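To assess whether the prediction recovers the assembly geometry, we first specified each molecular entity separately, as shown.
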Amino acid sequence: MLAPESLGPGRISLIEDSSACALDKLLHQLQQDGQRSAMVFACSANDYRTGELTPLFESLSLQIIGGVFPSIVCGAKLYERGTVVVSYREELPISIFHDISLNHDDGVFDDASLATAQSNLLVFADALSGGMEDFIERLYQHVGSGPKVLGGGAGYLDFFPRPCLFSNRGFLRDAAIVAALPASLNTAAGHGWEIIEGPYVVTESNGHDIISINYRPAFELYRETVQKISGRELNQQNFFEVAMHHPFGIAGLNGELLVRDPISSTDNRVSCVGNVPQNAAVYILKGDATALIEAAESTTRAALEDQPLPGSSALLFDCISRQLYLGERVDEELQHIESRLPQDMEIAGAFTLGEIANRGGGPIQLMNKSLVLGSF
Amino acid sequence: MSVQHELAMAIGNHIELDGMLRYFIKVCMQRLGLVSAHVYLYQNHQGWPETREKVAPGIDSPGHYLSVPMQTRGQPWANVDLLRHFDPEELLEQPSYCKRQRGHFYTFPVAQHGVFVLQPQQRLDPTIIAALRPIFARLANSCRACISHDGLLREMRARQEAERSLQHQLFYDPVTNLPNRKQLVKTIAHEKFQPKINSLKKSLLCIEIENYRRITNILGYEFGTKIQLRFAQILRNLTREKDVVSQLDANVFVVMIDQDAEKAQDLHELSQRLVDRVQASIGEPLLIGSHPVQLTIRSGFEVYPIFYCDADQVISHAEIAKSESVINGSKVATAYSQAIQDQVDNRLRMESALKSAVKNDELSLWWQPQYSASQQLVGAEALLRWISDEWGFVSPGVFIPLAEESDLIEKIGDWVMHKACEQLADICALGLPAHFQKLAINVSARQLAHNAFVDKLIHLIGAYKIPRGLLAIELTESTLVQNFDQTVALIRQLKQAGVDCSIDDFGTGYSSLSYLKHLPIQTIKIDQSFVRDIHQSAGDQAIAKTLIYLGKNLHKDIIAEGVETAEERDCLIEMGCKQFQGYFYDKPQPLDDLKSRWYQDGLRFANSA
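The predicted structure of the complete assembly is given in tokenized form:
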């Protein structure tokens, strides 16, 4: 099944009521109104239960994809409770991949209509399953460089894995949902972080954990550097709070930095959101709110370079880490983004745990502390 | 430089070529901002990568080996011949560049192995290209090592597979894949060391497809394998998961039956039930291929203690019990017991003694005279007797079947022919009564089947100068119908040589009366079962009358066997029977005893010396 050449105007509905009943009511209303597919972005603070949502989703003929995120976006505003739904009159081809942390059988991609469809793709994945990055790599292996991809990681900020994805099969965990998007999709990604120290060589790592840098215990070197550049003490207890200002960046040949967000430290290791490959050259980055906001604006401009069709919507996947970093200025970021959008273009989305996109037709990547915007 | 370092460190991360290249490509994709990467390698005819110098002549260029991602715009990269855009001479010497519609493509030679093709998002700076050259040179070394390793691994795996296959063949039947005898012995022996709370005993049930060889002799070996497969499947379907099915021979299967602790069923009962179910499954002819085949089985079992058993002995006991089941009737599974073992031991001892008996002259040929209604001596039947040192007088009913099970029957048959000719020659020298027509010797089916039987007999007759027509053979009805056409041909041959044939035990076999018309036999002997108390049995009288009538009209002689009373004789005479044999007249006895009687009785011999 192919994605439609273009989708009709997306209808964006926001409910600030965080109850499952309110969501139930909205979705049934949309279904009654002739909507056939819906992207659902719900706040983690809604605290939905599997027992509440699964029967609801299974009962709907309205196609459901989406997930739970630390916060959501509607217009230029951020919400920490409530749900935003972007719905369409058309159905989208959807493939659901289960057990992504366990299932490395590439045969699952053969069943998906993705590869042959060659459509652009929207990806929701369980950020806390441990299998998200590997899934993304395998997805690229199968779909190739043709499709444009955007998406984000769903989950909870306490990093406790639990069901966080929505589909007509229920409330899922350790899964990924991939939907085909129309050919009119335009995407862009950016972050605004800059190099302040480095390069260093990751002399030992294991997946998300950096074990040693330049043959020194990772935490030891990182702490030394961060304390030097920030003047702030860094320890195990305040690690998240301090480290959010100084992510790692892995430089590519084209100068682009793939940001890796350090979130905790144990046993002199530093754990990040996303893999940090052994032998990679990494930099320690700095940012400031203004640079991040400017990056958001330039990313929005890039996403709109190809004139979007009238009535297009914008989907935003912004890193929760940026929200925490920007603090109150996050509204400013959203306003700057919205200001770049055509008047008739609405924006919806979420603050995510990891952002998914491919840049320049290259491989699909899991990004941290970045934002990805798509318009279609 | 950091990118160069990371790429260099990405080489040799896996010992297998595929894994090594994929990891290297992954790093290339990430650090070089690639859209795709492709590997083209020289490969041998089986598709395994090789160095350029080792590939067979005719393979001029490297072939597609790997692409990441696998496809582009819905088409596999493997189907896109990227190398055709490049100068083949340059490809293997230095990096090359080409811009196509799909984007920018760079090739890097991997010395002696092939070419890497990279598709970056943008054009590469010449310094980058220069920095990558030594990387791919180093990659070539790693490829060589991996290819070597992969080759060794393939050899090892092939050898392991061969060993596994050999090992499997040692322990599993090649047709049905059931465990064979070796494996069964191992299993039984191994069980001793497995703690079993629920069962202390098991039953080893042995089932033989009795008519397997007969079927395969006609329908061929291939058909036999189908029977084996089918029967194995029947057993698998009828047994529980914990019961082990094995195969000892093409037509011999074994089931190790475990006790059911919950149901506390007797192992004897379980064994018989399984046999009953097997019987039910083969009760109707099985359609194998396009042939309906009726299988018959016999079975026996041994209940044995799991912890105190000898595996070979258990199997042997089950097989012995199976062999003895013929006595019980094939539908009953015979349980092994000491009594059965004693029978078998006795039989083996007797067989051994019988072998010696032939050598040690313990056998003798007795004659039982045959008389006419007017009490004239018209002939005799030569009967084999064995007086054993160990067992004394052994009934022919015991030792003849024993001889027939082995090849002894042929040796004994030859001895009988010799002896009969010798004795006949002796009597001829003394003179025979004018009415004495023939001496008949019994011939078994196995003797008859022997190629040289007719020639041997004719030769002996000639050697002992036995007058034509004096020696005859007796065949049982069942021997005659076994290979009817062949038997008829043999009888005709013998008849031409002056040796007549009679059917012994007529009426007890399964032949059709129409056989009588076509058989070139001279005499029909009415079986003693019809003769016994014939004067009191209308049924027996009817049978005898019919045979006598047939004999008369087909010009065959009729002899009634087993006449023991005057009433029987009189009844037979009344029905028209003309020749008789039985205890009423004479019991079988040594020829010397008969000779002294005949001379004393004043019988006139035609050719007295």
